[in-house]
Amino acid sequence: MTVQENLQTINEQIHAACQRVGRDPKEVKVIAVTKYVSEETTREALDAGIEHIGENRVEGGLDKWEALGSRGTWHFIGSLQSKKVKKVIGKFTYFHSLDRISLAKEIQKRAEEDDIVRCFVQVNVSGEESKAGLEPDEVIEFIESLAQFPAIKVVGLMTMAPFVEDIEETRPVFRGLCALQKKVQALHLSHAPCDELSMGMSNDYTVAIEEGATFIRLGSSLVGNEMNE
Ligand SMILES: *Cc1c(COP(=O)(O)O)cnc(C)c1O
Question: What is the pTM of this model?
Protein backbone atom coordinates (compact mmCIF):
# COMPACT_ATOMS: atom_id res chain seq x y z
CA MET A 1 0.00 0.00 0.00
CA THR A 2 1.25 3.48 -0.79
CA VAL A 3 1.02 6.31 1.71
CA GLN A 4 -1.54 7.90 -0.60
CA GLU A 5 -3.76 4.79 -0.45
CA ASN A 6 -3.41 4.50 3.32
CA LEU A 7 -4.30 8.15 3.68
CA GLN A 8 -7.44 7.67 1.65
CA THR A 9 -8.61 4.82 3.91
CA ILE A 10 -7.76 6.87 7.00
CA ASN A 11 -9.62 9.92 5.68
CA GLU A 12 -12.70 7.74 5.20
CA GLN A 13 -12.39 6.55 8.80
CA ILE A 14 -11.96 10.12 10.03
CA HIS A 15 -15.09 11.21 8.19
CA ALA A 16 -17.10 8.28 9.51
CA ALA A 17 -15.95 8.87 13.11
CA CYS A 18 -16.76 12.58 12.84
CA GLN A 19 -20.16 11.83 11.39
CA ARG A 20 -20.99 9.50 14.29
CA VAL A 21 -20.53 12.32 16.78
CA GLY A 22 -21.42 15.38 14.71
CA ARG A 23 -17.92 16.83 14.35
CA ASP A 24 -16.42 18.65 11.39
CA PRO A 25 -13.63 16.49 9.89
CA LYS A 26 -11.59 19.65 9.32
CA GLU A 27 -11.02 19.78 13.09
CA VAL A 28 -8.96 16.59 12.89
CA LYS A 29 -5.35 16.97 11.74
CA VAL A 30 -3.22 13.96 10.87
CA ILE A 31 0.39 13.79 12.02
CA ALA A 32 2.41 11.26 10.03
CA VAL A 33 4.74 9.62 12.56
CA THR A 34 7.85 8.79 10.58
CA LYS A 35 10.07 7.32 13.29
CA TYR A 36 10.11 3.84 11.71
CA VAL A 37 10.46 4.90 8.10
CA SER A 38 13.07 6.39 5.78
CA GLU A 39 13.50 9.89 4.52
CA GLU A 40 12.12 8.66 1.19
CA THR A 41 8.87 7.50 2.75
CA THR A 42 8.63 10.75 4.71
CA ARG A 43 8.94 12.61 1.40
CA GLU A 44 6.20 10.37 0.01
CA ALA A 45 3.94 11.43 2.89
CA LEU A 46 4.58 15.12 2.18
CA ASP A 47 3.95 14.50 -1.52
CA ALA A 48 0.65 12.81 -0.62
CA GLY A 49 -0.45 16.09 0.96
CA ILE A 50 0.40 15.42 4.59
CA GLU A 51 1.13 18.69 6.39
CA HIS A 52 2.23 17.42 9.82
CA ILE A 53 5.28 15.23 10.45
CA GLY A 54 6.01 13.69 13.87
CA GLU A 55 9.31 12.31 15.18
CA ASN A 56 10.13 11.01 18.63
CA ARG A 57 13.93 10.84 18.48
CA VAL A 58 16.28 13.79 18.28
CA GLU A 59 18.87 12.19 16.01
CA GLY A 60 16.65 10.49 13.42
CA GLY A 61 14.24 13.39 13.54
CA LEU A 62 16.91 15.97 12.86
CA ASP A 63 18.29 14.02 9.90
CA LYS A 64 14.87 14.08 8.28
CA TRP A 65 14.32 17.70 9.21
CA GLU A 66 17.64 18.71 7.58
CA ALA A 67 16.47 17.10 4.35
CA LEU A 68 12.78 17.98 4.37
CA GLY A 69 12.23 20.63 7.03
CA SER A 70 11.43 23.33 4.51
CA ARG A 71 8.17 21.45 3.92
CA GLY A 72 5.40 20.74 6.40
CA THR A 73 5.04 21.42 10.11
CA TRP A 74 7.24 19.35 12.41
CA HIS A 75 6.16 17.87 15.72
CA PHE A 76 8.41 16.44 18.39
CA ILE A 77 6.21 13.74 19.92
CA GLY A 78 8.59 11.76 22.16
CA SER A 79 9.94 12.41 25.62
CA LEU A 80 12.66 15.00 25.33
CA GLN A 81 15.78 15.11 27.47
CA SER A 82 16.43 18.66 28.65
CA LYS A 83 20.00 18.62 27.34
CA LYS A 84 18.71 17.98 23.81
CA VAL A 85 16.28 20.89 23.71
CA LYS A 86 18.84 23.18 22.09
CA LYS A 87 19.19 20.82 19.14
CA VAL A 88 15.52 20.80 18.21
CA ILE A 89 14.21 24.18 19.23
CA GLY A 90 13.38 26.45 16.33
CA LYS A 91 13.09 23.43 14.03
CA PHE A 92 10.15 21.54 15.46
CA THR A 93 7.09 23.76 15.77
CA TYR A 94 5.20 21.65 18.32
CA PHE A 95 6.38 19.72 21.37
CA HIS A 96 3.95 17.04 22.55
CA SER A 97 5.49 15.90 25.79
CA LEU A 98 5.99 18.75 28.21
CA ASP A 99 5.74 17.07 31.60
CA ARG A 100 8.14 18.82 33.98
CA ILE A 101 9.25 22.28 35.01
CA SER A 102 12.93 21.55 34.34
CA LEU A 103 12.05 20.95 30.67
CA ALA A 104 9.99 24.15 30.54
CA LYS A 105 12.97 26.06 31.98
CA GLU A 106 15.28 24.68 29.32
CA ILE A 107 12.80 25.52 26.53
CA GLN A 108 12.56 29.05 27.88
CA LYS A 109 16.35 29.35 28.04
CA ARG A 110 16.89 28.10 24.49
CA ALA A 111 14.03 29.88 22.75
CA GLU A 112 14.88 32.90 20.64
CA GLU A 113 13.71 36.19 22.06
CA ASP A 114 10.00 36.74 21.37
CA ASP A 115 9.70 33.18 20.11
CA ILE A 116 6.60 31.21 21.06
CA VAL A 117 7.05 27.48 21.51
CA ARG A 118 3.84 25.52 21.11
CA CYS A 119 3.63 22.77 23.71
CA PHE A 120 1.26 20.02 24.66
CA VAL A 121 1.27 18.97 28.27
CA GLN A 122 1.49 15.19 28.42
CA VAL A 123 -0.87 13.49 30.83
CA ASN A 124 -0.76 9.88 31.99
CA VAL A 125 -4.53 9.42 32.10
CA SER A 126 -4.44 5.63 32.21
CA GLY A 127 -2.08 5.56 35.19
CA GLU A 128 0.11 2.88 33.61
CA GLU A 129 3.51 2.98 35.26
CA SER A 130 5.37 2.64 31.98
CA LYS A 131 3.79 5.79 30.57
CA ALA A 132 5.25 9.26 30.74
CA GLY A 133 3.24 12.31 31.68
CA LEU A 134 1.71 14.05 34.65
CA GLU A 135 -0.95 12.56 36.86
CA PRO A 136 -4.32 14.12 35.97
CA ASP A 137 -4.60 15.84 39.35
CA GLU A 138 -1.22 17.55 38.87
CA VAL A 139 -2.12 19.14 35.55
CA ILE A 140 -3.87 22.33 36.60
CA GLU A 141 -1.18 23.43 39.01
CA PHE A 142 1.54 22.56 36.50
CA ILE A 143 -0.09 24.57 33.73
CA GLU A 144 -0.66 27.54 36.04
CA SER A 145 3.01 27.51 36.97
CA LEU A 146 4.03 27.66 33.31
CA ALA A 147 2.89 31.29 33.26
CA GLN A 148 6.41 32.20 34.41
CA PHE A 149 7.83 31.10 31.02
CA PRO A 150 6.79 33.65 28.39
CA ALA A 151 8.13 31.50 25.52
CA ILE A 152 5.76 28.64 26.31
CA LYS A 153 2.26 28.42 24.98
CA VAL A 154 0.17 25.46 26.10
CA VAL A 155 -1.74 24.68 22.90
CA GLY A 156 -3.26 21.50 24.27
CA LEU A 157 -3.01 18.22 26.14
CA MET A 158 -1.54 14.95 24.92
CA THR A 159 -1.95 11.37 26.06
CA MET A 160 -1.19 7.82 25.01
CA ALA A 161 -3.79 5.14 25.68
CA PRO A 162 -2.79 1.64 26.72
CA PHE A 163 -2.47 -0.87 23.90
CA VAL A 164 -5.56 -3.09 24.15
CA GLU A 165 -7.34 -5.67 22.03
CA ASP A 166 -10.72 -4.03 22.38
CA ILE A 167 -10.27 -0.37 21.47
CA GLU A 168 -13.45 0.55 23.36
CA GLU A 169 -11.31 0.22 26.49
CA THR A 170 -9.35 3.30 25.41
CA ARG A 171 -12.44 5.51 25.47
CA PRO A 172 -12.30 6.47 29.18
CA VAL A 173 -8.69 7.58 28.70
CA PHE A 174 -9.55 9.91 25.83
CA ARG A 175 -12.68 11.11 27.58
CA GLY A 176 -10.61 11.84 30.69
CA LEU A 177 -8.18 13.98 28.71
CA CYS A 178 -11.04 15.94 27.16
CA ALA A 179 -12.57 16.58 30.60
CA LEU A 180 -9.23 17.88 31.80
CA GLN A 181 -8.99 20.15 28.76
CA LYS A 182 -12.34 21.69 29.68
CA LYS A 183 -11.02 22.44 33.18
CA VAL A 184 -7.92 24.14 31.80
CA GLN A 185 -9.96 26.16 29.30
CA ALA A 186 -12.27 27.33 32.08
CA LEU A 187 -9.28 29.07 33.70
CA HIS A 188 -8.90 31.36 30.65
CA LEU A 189 -5.14 31.53 30.99
CA SER A 190 -3.54 33.61 28.25
CA HIS A 191 -0.52 31.28 28.08
CA ALA A 192 -2.71 28.17 27.92
CA PRO A 193 -5.59 28.36 25.46
CA CYS A 194 -5.47 24.54 25.35
CA ASP A 195 -7.59 24.23 22.21
CA GLU A 196 -5.99 21.03 20.97
CA LEU A 197 -6.09 17.38 22.00
CA SER A 198 -3.25 15.20 20.72
CA MET A 199 -4.59 11.68 21.13
CA GLY A 200 -5.14 8.57 19.05
CA MET A 201 -2.64 6.34 17.26
CA SER A 202 -2.99 3.75 14.51
CA ASN A 203 -4.98 1.26 16.57
CA ASP A 204 -7.31 3.63 18.44
CA TYR A 205 -7.65 6.89 16.50
CA THR A 206 -11.31 6.42 15.62
CA VAL A 207 -12.26 6.32 19.30
CA ALA A 208 -9.98 9.30 20.00
CA ILE A 209 -11.76 11.30 17.31
CA GLU A 210 -15.15 10.43 18.77
CA GLU A 211 -13.86 11.79 22.08
CA GLY A 212 -12.54 15.06 20.66
CA ALA A 213 -9.02 14.54 19.23
CA THR A 214 -7.77 17.40 17.07
CA PHE A 215 -4.36 15.87 16.28
CA ILE A 216 -4.07 12.13 15.68
CA ARG A 217 -0.57 10.63 15.51
CA LEU A 218 -0.37 7.86 12.92
CA GLY A 219 2.69 5.76 12.22
CA SER A 220 2.16 2.18 11.08
CA SER A 221 -1.29 2.62 9.54
CA LEU A 222 -0.21 5.59 7.43
CA VAL A 223 3.46 5.38 6.52
CA GLY A 224 4.13 1.79 7.64
CA ASN A 225 6.95 0.37 9.67
CA GLU A 226 10.08 -0.36 7.63
CA MET A 227 11.87 -1.80 10.66
CA ASN A 228 9.68 -4.93 10.52
CA GLU A 229 10.04 -5.61 6.84
C1 LIG B 1 5.16 5.85 17.58
C2 LIG B 1 4.24 6.81 18.13
C3 LIG B 1 2.98 7.03 17.53
C4 LIG B 1 2.49 6.26 16.31
O5 LIG B 1 2.31 4.91 16.57
P6 LIG B 1 1.47 3.94 15.59
O7 LIG B 1 0.83 2.98 16.49
O8 LIG B 1 2.48 3.33 14.68
O9 LIG B 1 0.50 4.78 14.86
C10 LIG B 1 2.16 7.99 18.09
N11 LIG B 1 2.54 8.71 19.16
C12 LIG B 1 3.73 8.54 19.76
C13 LIG B 1 4.08 9.37 20.94
C14 LIG B 1 4.61 7.59 19.26
O15 LIG B 1 5.80 7.41 19.87
Answer: 0.97
